[in-house]
Amino acid sequence: MIRSVLVTNRGEIARRVFRTCRDLGLATVAVFSDADAGSPHVREADAAVRLPGAAPGDTYLRADLLIGAARRAGADAIHPGYGFLSENAPFARAVTEAGLTWIGPSPEAIAAMGSKIESKRIMAGAGVPVLAQLDPEQVTAADLPVLIKASAGGGGRGMRVVRDLADLPREAELARSEARSAFGDPTVFCEPYLVAGRHVEVQVMADVHGTVWAVGERECSIQRRHQKVVEEAPSPLVERVEGMQARLFTAARAAATAIGYTNAGTVEFICDDAGRFYFLEMNTRLQVEHPVTECTTGLDLVALQIAVADGARLDPEPPAPHGHAIEVRLYAEDPCPAGAGAGAPVAAWQPQSGTVRRLAVPGVVAEFGTGSAPQGIRLDSGVRDGSTVGTHYDPMLAKVIAWAPTRDAAAARLATALARTRLHGLVTNRDLLVNVLRHPAFLAGDTDTAFFDRHGLDVLSAPLADARAAQLSALAAAMALDSADNSARAVLRAIPSGWRNVPSGPQRVVLTGRGGTEHEVTYRRTRAGVETNVENVAVLGADVHEVVLDDGGVRRTFAVSRYGDQVEVDSALGPTRLVLQPRFTDPASQVPPGSLLAPMPGSVVRLAVAAGDTVRAGEPVLWLEAMKMQHRVDAPTDGTVTELPVRAGQQVDVGTVLAVVTEEGSER
Questions:
Q1: Could you tell me if 38 and 388 are in contact, meaning their C-beta atoms sit under 8 angstroms apart?
Q2: Tens digit of pLDDT for each residue in 156-184?
Q3: Which of 194, 217, 212, 216 is nearest to 145 (CA)?
Q4: Check: CATH 3.30.70.1350 for 4-103?
Q5: What is the pLDDT of residues 6-53, one digit of tens each?
Q6: Which residues contact 127 (CB under 8 A, 6 or more apart)?
Q7: Are 519 and 511 in contact (CB under 8 A)?
Q8: For the domain 467-580, what is the CATH code?
Q9: CATH number of 589-663
Q10: Please, where in the chain does CATH 3.30.470.20 lie?
Q11: pTM to 2 decimals?
Q12: Which of 107, 401, 555, 644 is deepest in the core (most CB within 10 A)?
């Protein structure tokens, strides 16, 4: 019997598995790279083994080190989580050959589904509907649009949509490069691209005695860059189309049976609005979005994985689902468009690195499980206050899940929890998530893969705090900073800063918000109170952390937190992140207008231009690789590349000048 489990993974999924192991009375072993030495999953394990280095290829992708760690720590089973080596057949085989229990499907099943090309052939033979497979070298204009996909791996890496035949060779090469970097396999293929399809997947669980469950379906259609953003169970499409669920479940069980599958897995399909569906791939592991299935069924899928690996029998049928659950992935990424002012980082949805100052989600009734509560907010997070988000791994901070009796109730509960979350230190996709959950089309169940294209990613990522809210938040920040200055003084603390016996000029504070928007706050203390330049507002009270304002007869409270020059303001009007500007600018800190700055540390993969070239706004200048993804850096304006100080293969730090594009007609 399994007594001690080593998880060959990190962050949120390692914590998730450990939580179930504790419930089952099993010992836990963590592994960690040097970059993860202070991570929560390391502290929570009963034992932890260091993997020297930081890059995945030196640590979490080293099968020999992982198996050696299990032996040294006395673990008798290995759970791979998801990502890294979770779908690596040679690793699964090496684990079993080492005399350890592999908590997952057989190496043969993993190998059969490890190649998307081979898996489609097997599925077609099992009678599961599949899309036609196209050779990139033989695609014609009549085949367009097509989707280039990496044969190995997942997570959106190595995927490109091609609508113009002339773009196919370049996009195919970029896909190969990204696939080689992420999975060690550059093989790619093409398939017809359904512009407005629906992504529906079926959770399966199978034991070694021949029982195969189709536990329930999930819809994950809202995606950006082919990566899931919102996931829910059950699927609005499947609920609407009569008989679709039964057909999906039959296909999913046929897929699992065709390869003798055991343990947890997911069969993914692309569907149309009429309910027709086609096999995409089978993930031979636990999915990131498994919590929505757990919430609606009451199952602990990790506990079932361990039981099946130990030889247990499943019941003849899984429990019937109830209620509705929605999950969102909270990422550290900057949604601001490129070229948001001279010297601004090229940050069009680029991953962010840095310190999580605070992550406090209200209303959480369970972490890493459904707990005893019948409904509420579940939080699965790999970070805590003070955690560092580096550049070596995925920038997901947390999965926030709401479950409720109805879909509308779950959406409302999740949107409110996210909007009220204290989330400090890093720019995230929180505004996008809340706006999606509150959008009429989402609430109507109109959630195909073209959701962002149809409704506008820029519109959906608009700040929750509008211009007026940002102005009030800036005033609150200024009042809190003023209170902090008073409390920091060694003498005369009772006298407010700037107080005079006679009328004098106002004090001035300048803060910048999203996109470089400047907020200038002036204020002066008088015997009657605080006079400010914000119309129709009175300051009712202020201390270092809380400010109360009267806004046209409406009392509003603002919570203020300061981290160096960064000021975070939270209120019912929406969160606002501000940066305190220095009174005097250091000339050495200035960069030329039109500078493209690296938004994160990374490696320059490829240059698209040379110094002296003319570019148009939105055209690629170079590609930067970070967090196992390639990020295109575009020209912010029409102009000439006057400086290109980097070269292919060069490592750069955040803020490094990658290029300077001088706008047409401007003088330097």
A1: yes
A2: 778 889 999 999 999 999 899 888 877 77
A3: 194
A4: no
A5: 999 999 999 999 999 999 999 999 999 999 999 999 999 999 999 999
A6: 254
A7: yes
A8: 3.30.700.30
A9: 2.40.50.100
A10: 323-438
A11: 0.87
A12: 401
